[in-house]
């Protein structure tokens, strides 16, 4: 059974900072946001976790394998190198949405995202080493069937993007409501979902739902592991099988 | 009348590169994508343009103020510092979608995004200095009314994200179909749209549409300028007026 | 005749910042310093200038081609993305040392490097476009003859480094005292010097001096141009001639 | 007794890469070198090690606390995100120079730095956890007495730099020859040395030597620890004592 450890990173007082004393250059905000995300991705990724850019001022990560000290060091390093600081909530749960919900509450209870007095909260609980198991994390890696042929090489780049975005919006809502999962667009035509224990049928239903709702054809590879990297790399390999032989679904443990 | 110069950046042969010889670590792909975007944002932004991460392997920019040599140097710099290269199409048009469409065609005509032989295309046309005007670019900066109070401090971080994503998906499609505009989520609860000459009514209709379609309340500041930075900074200031006094729309030229 | 435009970038109040409230992690300071330098290198380099990391809290650049507004934007962008700010002095002169000296004075006159009240000074003069000429900048690119064979593949990495460092220390002092030039180690076994109008003899004497003083054998390519990039790229090509045929000196204009 | 674990990072085939097919823009090389260093600094630093930029194509690190798998992951991550790869040698020794020497030999034995066929060597030995001790690493942090008052606020920025560089060149050679230590300039007026077990007298002699040889007045804080970060942070605190009360030497364990 899954036991997902989820971390929420929230930049402290970001909204006000971006417009004080005057609105800051958009290109610089985009650069700061992206590079902060990239740094967190390197740090968390080196410990076999995954982080998703999400809203950039709020970033969600799967951090099985990182302990509290790991989070503390990351928080300190960010405060040494950026003009902003981050607050962090960590929680675990049988479903990703439960863990994420608890992680959010930890940060919210300490103060508003725009509370000038709230800085560098660090609170939560991790999955202790003794309780970790090979099926703690389940990752599904979706992409669009023949995106290059159907969209990228055919439509203008924004209409391609609309199609992929509509597919993502439909999938994210369905996976959350029907399956307590967290889904993230990760570039290209790829969406990575963090899931509880789901079976073949759940994924088939999700793919069917998106096709009916927005006419976007997805396929998916799914993997399990002790960490997001382990589960996610398995999922990538399963997706390669789909790409190779036309399957729409491939599970790493079957 | 607007005369938007749009650039499409497309990483050459990226899909295959990410899985050859084996799928690469996701955290590294995220880092590479984000830092490439950040570098392009700095380069384009320093010349008063705006670039949007879009799909990361395809990035759309408003580049009024950059000439062909500027694009060429950026392309060369990327090839010196990254393990991938980019192809570039530049075009201009009375509407952003027209310019983006032509820019896309220039790249597509040179070869597929996954054509191993297509590398570092650079093609297109810019707005010559003598033809530039103070209303070449129109930028609308949307955000969600009281996002912090309604979402960030209330819902879990993923449900907040779903709300904002649904709002974005609805807005992007409407603005493209009804108004030939290109809309991009830029973090937080913010969406920046690149528009042709639109009037008050067009923006009011867009805000109403999104509220009806997905129950997300937007407000918007709009600006004009010779460059994206000029138009966008004006839009940011107009949005500050909305934040201050409850208005749902403020135009920089009224 | 050369007319070098030199910019001094000095981080404001850096010493105190690094130890307040407590000494900060060294790895984070190294990261911040290097990335700030990298950003300045991209910005200045894209305008055909060169910047040298020097002491990291003080960085020296050759900025023929950048005007005051260019410096202002760079300063603003840094303040938007880093936890520190920089003060900037720009000056021009017949010799690089004269320009650098005047640039330094502009910053010093505004306040101490550790004066908590001094922030974001921007002062100085540039070479106006109408006065620019193809021989404004002279760059000499030195490297060590057969460094790989003599040092890198033979000695341990620190003893190789000592040899190169001793060679650099001797060259930098000689070029400054005898020839009013500024010399900078740029990695590997390479030193780039910013020079006034020097002839063949001056470079031969410098190479002889270093060989006598510390037994390090240098060779050098020299170029001229309107910008550091133009002069420096010419110097690189001349150095390639030296590498190819055993010459110890090659001038781009002979 | 110290038991320093030293890692040598050497970019594969870098010299040829920088000039193939043509010499690359210097500003881009500087950016790539600095950002690669910054990434290694973050990775190694997060595991409580220290890395020094040294020659940029060859970087030396103190890596007590990192195992072989840690080095392997770093090497893989670099290959995923940069246009170059690195070879790595790791070794341990009673003195830093011995460890560095063995680490270098591991890389040299596998092939020349400019051997096009040598890529991503990873070889060596670490200090196993069971053998680690609180005095494994000794770090000395030197700076120049009143550098700001004597140099930065008084001389032009290059003459300040010459003074500091001459001080560094003298110190690095003395510490290597007399004390088997590795010394690195780390910015500002700071030099960090990695030492074996040295006592008070050794440091007093080093400071005296530099004052006699080049008239640069140094002071030094020294610390011990299981890792470079632990020893180095202790050294920083000792140096703060020197700054506060005028002492020229302060040892963390007395």
UniProtKB/TrEMBL annotation, chains A, B, C, D:
Gene3D superfamilies assigned: 3.30.70.270, Nucleotide cyclase (3.30.70.1230)
Class of this enzyme: hydrolase
Catalytic activity: GTP + 3 H2O = 2-amino-5-formylamino-6-(5-phospho-D-ribosylamino)pyrimidin-4(3H)-one + 2 phosphate + 2 H(+)
Residue spans crossing the bilayer: none
Listed InterPro entries: GTP_CycHdrlase_3 (IPR007839), Nucleotide_cyclase (IPR029787), Rev_trsase/Diguanyl_cyclase (IPR043128)
Keyword vocabulary terms for this entry: GTP-binding, Hydrolase, Nucleotide-binding
HAMAP family for this protein: GTP_cyclohydro_3
Role: Catalyzes the formation of 2-amino-5-formylamino-6-ribofuranosylamino-4(3H)-pyrimidinone ribonucleotide monophosphate and inorganic phosphate from GTP. Also has an independent pyrophosphate phosphohydrolase activity.
Family: Belongs to the archaeal-type GTP cyclohydrolase family.
Protein name: GTP cyclohydrolase III
Protein's organism: Halovivax cerinus
Gene coding for it: gch3
